[in-house]
């Protein structure tokens, strides 16, 4: 390993605080009452509820989402028996991965004990504290007995990750590697290096999946595991002992289709690789140094498919792809164990994901690497946000079907939404919107149909089935990009295309545009030019004419230009003097909406009141009750600036026009968020709790406040949501992500559904306003 990596890793572990995680309270502990609830005397009620029914522990404590990562430090990575203290960085790392990838709270427990009997006693005694136990880096053969005895004794899942996590990921990668080389699992010859925890569990699962036991030869530190051998044997190894005169890896590797290394650094040589069968599969998985480095193997066998356990080579076969998600699924259904059905379901889900087209989030995280199923992309990358959804739900379902789930999931669609929120925090907030959109899909035209993000979003929209996309773009370019991105979209089947260079509807579009704009200085000639060159205009005309129900434009062209076209072609809703843009910031504990972030830099009190009422209506679409604060530098009359007066006037107008709204103003932003601060300055406030819709006095303050909060909190943003036009449309900003486009697509479909019901929209004016 390079010095640079060593220095970087040590600094990462040391700064800014030693170690990799800390524990944060999830409840307020700010005053005497909180103390009385959290601790004595209030806590006693939670204790009594658990005495009454032990299942209440998952209601009143962290137990249901808490996993112990337990080791005794006897087989730490490939570093060997380095002891429990030195194992702590690895275990802290596993704990952090549980949290990051699957939202599971995990703590590392390093136990200074090698005696299996004592270890079993210690670990079994942890049952009251945890919802599941992840055994880690405990050496073979003791690990087998330890796990079996704990599984018998404990009523929560006990899972030795080095065995089963590795087996699941190896099986997924193996199934896909065999798919690439076109060899059936029941006809390949496999040689394993290593007969420890990981290797034997992998072999067990591969046998379960159809690899004949007779096709397997195992080697370890002594050499071939043969029938009759006495040296360093144990009952588990014995099950793979074969009748043979061969005694070394070099002898048995000849003609093998697969090398599975879960042993030690550099045990496989280039000479040995040369003798393998055509298109050999080499899984050199010892960590951190594999049995052979990929370059060395590739040099002698360019036809090989190669995987390692490391993130710095293609095909990282590592149990990180599995353990967070298997535990997530098991905890969510209250599984009493993790059985073979759950393991097989996890392996299949991982294998299937690599076959699906790559996600843009992964492409982004991996710096634009080519991520299409093939020899260098056999399994998904650890940062693939689909893993938590697909693997956890497959495991949960398998637990239910195999009868080990104590809390079966009733609504799998809802569960998948919750799972996606572990990665995309917009998931939960957007759930109501997606459900409504799916119930009544609409035709959405995308003006920038050649943009890669739009194409990826269109694929998701088609897969999720909440809209029928229409793309504006040149046919050859769109087709080429679909292929390059590995998408499955079929032009003219999944999606309609409008090619601005060659569309028979061109004459209809420019004539209509001219009709709308002829009294605004637009000549037939310039109408032709605008329609030929501005995709947003074509998209807007399609909606206006009724060929589409809603429009998404951007991210390529500028927001203000797009908005101008939309106002010209659509007009604004009756009673609206100016549209506005609202953005949502989704934080771990709450969602806030801010307006106006994009549209009009100066509004009158009447327009602020109008915007407030429109935005409140929009917030309800997310299933959230608006709690509105009209922001200012002044709180309840403390300032005399014109903008403070304007917000006071706007507040009075909103109270008059929409008395049902929970609204207050004018106030500073901290008073809006904190009830405590607000009550200090104005105890009689009409607003309860924290405001979630923040109306700012002008565009600059709205935009600055939103972006500052976003940058400081790293919250997820949804929007800008364009409100007030006479037809459903949103304008994408240049920084939008694929997920952002998908979110806005769902929102625009919901707009279109409401418009089709004629609530609260009004008809298209004959001439634009
Ligand atoms: N990529 C991944 O996701 C994972 C990788 N691993 C890696 O796999 C390796 C084994 O881990 P694990 O099974 O937990 O450990 P174990 O200690 O349980 O097993 C190690 C095995 O390797 C054998 N071995 C050790 N040295 C050699 C050698 N020089 N030549 C041949 N065989 C040897 C041992 O032989 P003997 O039985 O004779 O002692 C034993 O069978 C480690 O490098 C670990 O990092 C493990 C889990 C997951
Ligand atoms: C990845 C892992 O668990 C190991 O190498 O031990
Ligand atoms: Mg391990």
UniProtKB/TrEMBL annotation:
Pfam families: malic, Malic_M, PTA_PTB. It comes from the Bacteria. Residues 18-151 form the Malic enzyme N-terminal domain. SUPFAM superfamilies: Aminoacid dehydrogenase-like, N-terminal domain, Isocitrate/Isopropylmalate dehydrogenase-like, NAD(P)-binding Rossmann-fold domains. NADP(+) binds at residues 76-83. A divalent metal cation binds at residues 136-137, 162, 287. Gene3D superfamilies: 3.40.50.10950, Isocitrate/Isopropylmalate dehydrogenase-like (3.40.50.10750), Malic enzyme, N-terminal domain (3.40.50.10380), NAD(P)-binding Rossmann-like Domain (3.40.50.720). GO terms for biological process: malate metabolic process. Keywords: Metal-binding, Multifunctional enzyme, NADP, Oxidoreductase. Residues 163-400 form the Malic enzyme NAD-binding domain. GO terms for molecular function: acyltransferase activity; malic enzyme activity; metal ion binding; NAD binding; oxidoreductase activity, acting on the CH-OH group of donors, NAD or NADP as acceptor. The keyword Nucleotide-binding does not apply. The active site is at 94 (proton acceptor). Its cofactor is Mg(2+); Mn(2+). In the C-terminal section; belongs to the phosphate acetyltransferase and butyryltransferase family. In the N-terminal section; belongs to the malic enzymes family. This is Malic enzyme. It comes from Tistrella mobilis (strain KA081020-065). The gene is maeB.
